[in-house]
Write a structure and sequence with these properties.
- The protein is of the alpha+beta class and 235 residues long.
- It is built from 5 helices and 10 strands.
- The protein has helices at 93-99, 112-116, 119-140, 145-168, 205-234; strands at residues 3-6, 10-12, 18-24, 31-37, 40-42, 52-54, 58-60, 62-64, 78-79, 88-90.
- Strands 9-8-1-10 form a 4-stranded mixed beta sheet.
- The N and C termini lie far apart (129 Å).
């Protein structure tokens, strides 16, 4: 038998968990159903997720491997796939043997005291302590090649611990590098030689009379050309 009790929220790989997506064929109108295998979210703090009842009031979430359920329990455990986590408390000898292959200590319950001493809480405290030590070392140690080497080692250890924490929490995701918009090239300012506008001056009476005479002469010349063309056509 291999049965565990969940003491922390999980996304577990449950073979029977499926998500159905239904669409319609654009040509025939017939429904198209597709089934996708998805992880199952289980939270021991939520009553709706309990599969084991205790005294008719409280409840727990029990999980097991395929074919490894304990018949002594009246309620069936949820079958999952994969390795146990620090948030799974083993309930029998086989489960204890499997969990014992890992270096962490399982969280004992969902109460505040147990959560404070959980694996993830301790790992977070370790990261905080390392950051504090790094800050103190940076402020007190004199500059030099040995100090630079020490800083590089500490930063590498912190990065490794953060990766371990993210991996155990199931939150390791590839973060794409931000795509920066190309910076437009700054064009040199174009210098245009612009002349100052001329002042507006009203025409004199002599200029108006001269312009009127020129316009009258041009009109008479144009009328004369038109008369000549009409005469030549009649001939």
């Amino acid at each position: 038998m291999a049965r565990w009790k969940l003491t922390e929220p999980h996304y577990l790989s449950v073979p029977t968990e499926r998500w159905e997506h239904t669409t319609s064929d654009s040509r025939t109108g017939k429904p198209i159903r597709k089934m996708f295998r998805v992880p199952k979210h289980l939270d021991p703090r939520l009553e709706d997720d309990w599969n084991v009842r205790i005294n008719g009031m409280d409840g727990e979430i029990h999980v097991c491997y395929e074919g490894k359920d304990d018949p002594r329990y009246p309620d069936r455990a949820i079958v999952f796939e994969g390795n146990p986590t620090p948030g799974m408390l083993p309930l029998d000898d086989e489960a204890k043997e499997i969990s014992g292959q890992f270096s962490w200590t399982p969280t004992q319950g969902i109460d505040e005291e147990s959560q404070r001493h959980s694996f993830y809480a301790k790992l977070g405290d370790t990261l905080i302590d390392q950051m504090t030590e790094l800050k103190v070392a940076r402020e007190t140690a004199p500059p030099g090649p040995n100090m630079d080497k020490f800083m590089e080692t500490m930063l590498a250890m912190m990065a490794q611990n953060q990766q371990i924490l993210a991996a155990l929490a199931g939150k390791v995701q590839a973060v794409p590098e931000p795509v920066l918009a190309p910076v437009p090239e700054q064009m040199p300012e174009q210098i245009i030689n612009a002349e100052e506008p001329l002042e507006e001056v009203e025409p004199t009476q002599e200029e108006i009379a001269e312009a009127t005479a020129e316009a009258t002469a041009r009109e008479a010349l144009s009328q004369g050309k038109v008369q000549n063309r009409m005469t030549s056509r009649r001939i």
